Q: What sequence folds into this?
């Protein structure tokens, strides 16, 4: 099971160069990268990572509205200046310009807002622009029928699709049923923001992504892998982490230079999820599912 680490582009510039080579599977967001008109943030990143996955930044459209609707409840409010069509058009231009710098990209998965007809039209544009072979199409449960889902799988050129993560106020998707259809067709399936232990140990996604590796920097805790899952310990509970076989550089954890302190916590987060990737890959291999990652 591949675990993509998201949020590198939002890390302090002085940290990025140090962290890139430590992250095998990187999840970059077009929403943040597009602000860099010189493309410096995406140029050359493939030399650092095994796989580069570009996310469309679709969540920013849903975060405009805090009402309960097709898109669910979203607390963060980010007013999008561009319309969905303008955003898509600019996304296509950026994808074409930076085609050599990524391995896969997620389509602009806002079917709940624009409807499946428009989603299908946009997929045709991606095909016309010779981008579709790297496109990870996404299942939109609120606007797609089962037949639409099967057609999406049959139409995939990248042999890689994605499923939305859990949402508040919405019944959990039938993930096992959805994933089985992918495996029947030798299609890889990604789970957006699905790195909780009760997900990775029960649902055989080919890959998942998360920003949780940054928890140490964000919340001042110490992320570590305890042998079966990633945990976050506070300084007062380092003994628990030590019992799990984890070793820390106390000088860096308590470094008076906060830049060095935060950097070390980020490195601990990367290491924890790399260990988790090895563990879950082996776990599913024992169950008969071998992704050959």
A:
């Amino acid at each position: 099971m591949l675990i993509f680490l998201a949020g590198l582009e939002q890390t302090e510039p002085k940290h990025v160069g140090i962290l890139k080579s430590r992250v095998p599977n990187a999840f970059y967001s077009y929403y943040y990268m597009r602000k860099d008109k010189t493309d410096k943030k995406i140029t050359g990143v493939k030399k650092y990572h095994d796989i580069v996955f570009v996310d469309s930044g679709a969540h920013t459209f849903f975060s405009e509205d805090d009402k309960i609707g097709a898109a669910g409840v979203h607390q963060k409010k980010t007013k999008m200046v561009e319309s969905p069509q303008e955003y898509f058009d600019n996304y296509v231009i950026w994808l074409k310009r930076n085609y050599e710098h990524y391995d896969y990209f997620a389509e602009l998965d806002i079917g709940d807002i624009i409807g499946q007809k428009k989603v299908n039209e946009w997929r045709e544009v991606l095909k016309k622009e010779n981008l579709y072979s790297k496109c990870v199409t996404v299942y939109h449960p609120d606007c797609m029928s089962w037949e639409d889902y099967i057609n999406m799988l049959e139409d995939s050129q990248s042999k890689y699709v994605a499923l939305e993560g859990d949402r508040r106020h919405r019944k959990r998707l039938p993930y096992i049923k959805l994933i089985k259809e992918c495996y029947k067709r030798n299609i890889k399936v990604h789970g957006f923001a699905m790195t909780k232990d009760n997900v990775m140990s029960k649902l055989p996604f080919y890959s998942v992504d998360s920003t949780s590796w940054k928890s140490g920097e964000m919340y001042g805790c110490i992320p570590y892998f305890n042998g079966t899952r990633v945990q976050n310990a506070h300084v007062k509970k380092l003994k628990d982490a030590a019992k799990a076989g984890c070793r820390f550089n106390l000088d860096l954890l308590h470094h008076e230079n906060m830049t060095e302190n935060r950097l070390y916590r980020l490195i601990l987060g990367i290491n924890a999820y790399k260990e988790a990737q090895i563990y879950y890959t082996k776990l599913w291999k024992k169950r008969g599912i071998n992704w050959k990652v």
